[in-house]
Design goal:
It is a single chain. The chain is built from 4 helices and 4 strands. The protein is mainly α. The strands form 2 sheets. A two-stranded antiparallel sheet has the order 1-2. A two-stranded antiparallel ribbon has the order 3-4.
Length: 131
């Protein structure tokens, strides 16, 4: 009996890893791979026992649609979409609000300049009249 390089359990059947000379995986670890890549060097593995990876990666089966993970994933995507939408709306509203505030400040400054100008004109008129 030989020991698996991944789970370190003594097994009888192995899949040899030619890319990392001397290492080998038991069939349980081979079937547990999520991608057909060597767990040590990340090279693509050739000659793996056939596994239909589309069943793993495409959540179209009813077991994925009903799963808690899938529902959470959809809610997370919806929150991100809503966040982005709110961010763009908030940018537009903030821009609009800033323009309104700027306009109010400009009108206030114009009014203050006009009042100052009228005050000085009235003051000069009063000085000229009473002197």
């Amino acid at each position: 009996m030989k020991e698996c390089s991944i789970c370190y359990e003594p097994k009888t059947t192995f899949f040899p890893l030619e890319c990392c000379g001397g290492y080998s995986m038991c069939h349980d670890c081979t079937h547990a791979l999520q991608q057909p890549k060597c767990p040590f060097c990340r090279n693509m593995l050739v000659g793996l026992p056939t596994i239909d990876y589309s069943q793993i990666w495409w959540p179209t089966e009813q077991r994925y649609v009903d799963s808690r993970w899938y529902r959470r994933h959809l809610r997370r995507i919806e929150r991100v979409r809503q966040f982005e939408q709110n961010r763009t709306v908030n940018k537009l509203l903030t821009r609009e609000l800033n323009l309104q505030r700027k306009h109010v400040r400009e009108m206030k400054c114009r009014r203050q300049r006009k009042d100052r100008k009228n005050f000085i004109r009235n003051l000069l008129h009063d000085v000229a009249q009473y002197s």
